[in-house]
Each structure stands twice: as C-alpha cells, then as structure tokens.
Design brief:
about 70% helix, about 400 residues, mainly alpha, 22 helices, Serine Threonine Protein Phosphatase 5, Tetratricopeptide repeat
Length: about 400
C-alpha cells in the first residue's frame, strides 16, 4: 500500500522515472509529511487527482504512525511531523496516542495538546495552548501551519491580529497549500476592514498565483458575495479598478468571476455592478451557451428599474431557457419575472370608502354587511372626533 501511494505521489510531482527508484522501507514520519505537503502543493496548483491521493496517503500515514515505535517520537523532527500531520487533516487518534507516551514526545506539550484540541473543535483549549506560541520561532514547515490555525482562532474578535498571522503563514510557507489557504482567507478579512487598495492587491495575488486551485471556485463565490454585500464595487471609479483585477486572470477564470459577481450583485441589490459584470461576462461567453444565458438573466434582472421599458425586460426574461440554468438561477428568473410583471402593471384606482352609517342606511346592504361591532366602532370614532374638535376650539 505504501509503495503504491508513494509511487502515485512521485508521479504527480516528479514523473514516473523518478518514482521507479523511490525507497519505501523505513521511511521516517518527517519524510512522509514532506511528501504530504508536496502533494498539497499540487492541490493548490489545481491537480484534482491529488485530492483523492491525499485522502489515501493520510490513511496510510495514520496506520504507519500508530504502528511506529515510541522511540521514533523522541526525534524532534518526527514529533513536529506528528503535529503537522494532525493540523493537515490527519486523524486525531495519532495525537491522542502520542500524548500518553512516557517519556513524552520531543515537542512542546502546549503545541501538541493545542493541535489536538483544535481539530477536535475544543476552541477554548486550543486558544489557551496555541495563541501564546510565536509561529515565527518554529521551523517554517510547521510555523506556517500554526499561524494559519492561530488566525482562525482570533478572526472573529481580533481582525487586525488575524490578518497579521495570515501574513506570517504566507511568508513562512510560500507556494504551499498553507499559503493558498492563508491568502484566500486574508482577502475576505481585509474586505471587512474597508481597505480597498489592500483588498485589490491580495485578490490579484490570489487570482494570479492560485486561480486554478481546487479551492478557487470557493474563492470566486465568496469574492463576488463580498464585493456585492460590502459595496466594494460601488461608485464610478471603483468598478473599473475591480474590473482590471479580474481581467488579470485567464479568460475562463474571468468569465466565472464576472458571472459570480453579477449574480451576487443582483441578489444584494447592487444593480449597476450587476449590469457591468454581466456585460463583461457576456463578452467572454460562447454565444447561445449556458454562460451567455446566465449573463442575460443577470443583465435583465438588473434592468428592472422605474422609467425603463419593462415590456422589453419581460421579453428578455421570457426568452431565457430554463433548462440551461441551474436551480438557483431558475429561482432568480422566477423572482425577476414576478417583479417585472408587478412593476409593469397599471395601478388600479380604488373606490372611496363609504361610512358605516351610509351602508347601514341602505336596506339592501346594511343588514348583511354592517355588524354591531362596526356600528359601535363608528359611534366611538364620532364621539372621539367631537371631543377633539371641542378641545381644539378656542
């Protein structure tokens, strides 16, 4: 099993010739963790095969690590590897087992205990153990991972500190999945601060360096939502700046980003942004294809405005193919159609209300329509009107 997994990893990283001679016996934990991190770098680069391979490798590592002699973990490199494995998606079983060893493993007890608490969602314990640590004083391959975890622990309460920790994570582990995750998260934390220049810079960095990452789709969705919800693209000068960022990536990525942005902008009522993003997406979409249909939907939905030709908008909406739209877009189409229909209807002139006394005096309607409660209410209102008029008289 180990031979098969290591061969797969080598094929992903170096090609079959390098893999053929790879040693498999007696591989220490720290070497296996390096292999794991190399595979994760492939995930950051967009290698979908590496995702499934990583799951299998983690399973193999768990079995190998649990079967290792206790003396293995008295080597600091292997002890650090155990923490890295734990924070990289490994099973908590390993760290639970290692924390029972006597003599203890060769690593700071707070680091080991905190890592276990973090992946077991014991946040208070994780904070107590991990936040006092200085990630920059740890070996880089572990420090970046720890800084990433620390940032997630303080993001809700200490935004500036979380952003600083994500900067540390990126600098400590460049080119890795840790940097990809740190940069992806930092973009949205910076968006909350309103620092548009920094937001633009980090977004551009992510799109250029990790635009093909396995997690890029998640980035695009959150990116579009943040722009629409926070109004980052609002204003005559802002959308062109944002447009320049999006156009720095490849055409396919651009199209996906503009579509996500147009959709989110419609949902959040940022209609100017929605129309501009939809126009950019339409220019990049194959004619008659699904993406062109989506761009048409967002452009039409964002054009339902007072003073506009609502009939033309309704015509555009009715011409869209529901079969080419996803479920969320079909819901948006239905909502936009309903709004356009309501806006296009002529208001009806309501008949003036008649007094209860007038209706009651009509023998054909009074007995069947006017109730005792209604008569009492009108009498009460008449009394109140009389009192108010008396009180206001000189």
């Amino acid at each position: 099993m180990i031979r098969r997994i290591l061969l797969l990893v080598s094929l992903l990283v170096s090609g079959p010739h390098a893999a053929a001679e790879a040693p498999v016996d007696g591989i220490p934990p720290f070497e296996m963790v390096r292999t794991l991190q190399t595979m994760q770098a492939q995930i950051a680069g967009g290698n979908a095969t590496a995702v499934a391979a990583q799951r299998e490798l983690l399973s193999v590592m768990e079995k190998a690590f649990l079967a290792a002699s206790p003396s293995v973990w008295r080597d600091a490199r292997n002890a650090r590897a155990a923490v890295t494995y734990t924070l990289s998606g490994g099973s908590p079983r390993l760290m639970r087992s290692l924390l029972t060893l006597d003599p203890p493993i060769a690593i700071d007890a707070d680091l080991a205990t905190g890592a276990l608490a973090y992946i077991e969602n014991r946040e208070d314990e994780a904070r107590k153990r991990l936040l006092p640590l200085d990630a920059r004083k740890l070996p880089m391959s572990l420090g970046g991972q720890v800084a990433l975890v620390q940032a997630s622990l303080v993001a809700r309460e200490e935004l500036p500190r979380a952003i600083g920790l994500l900067d540390d994570a990126r600098l400590l582990m460049p080119g890795t999945l840790v940097e990809e995750a740190a940069l992806r998260r930092e973009v949205f934390l910076v968006a909350q601060t309103g620092n548009l220049d920094r937001f633009e810079y980090l977004s551009q960095q992510y799109l250029r360096r990790f635009g093909t990452s396995i997690y890029a789709e998640d980035f695009r969705q959150r990116f579009a939502t943040a722009i629409a919800r926070l109004g980052i693209a609002d204003g005559d000068d802002r959308f062109p700046r944002l447009e320049a960022i999006l156009k720095s990536s490849d055409p396919e990525n651009q199209r996906a980003l503009f579509l996500q942005l147009a959709q989110a902008a419609v949902v959040h009522g940022k209609l100017g942004t929605a129309r501009s993003a939809a126009a950019d997406a339409a220019a990049l979409a194959p004619i008659g294809g699904r993406d062109a249909m989506r761009a048409g939907l967002y452009a039409a939905a964002a054009s339902i405005l007072p003073g506009k030709d609502i009939g033309e908008v309704r015509k555009r909406l009715s011409g869209l193919s529901r079969r080419q739209l996803g479920r969320r877009d079909v819901d948006l189409l239905d909502a936009a159609t309903a709004v356009a229909t309501a806006v296009g209807e002529e208001p009806t002139t309501s008949a003036p209300l008649e007094a209860v006394s007038a209706v009651a005096a009509d023998t054909k309607r009074g007995d069947t329509w006017v109730t005792d409660t209604m008569r009492a209410a009108e009498a009460g209102l008449s009394t109140a009107d009389a009192l108010l008029e008396k009180a206001n008289s000189p």
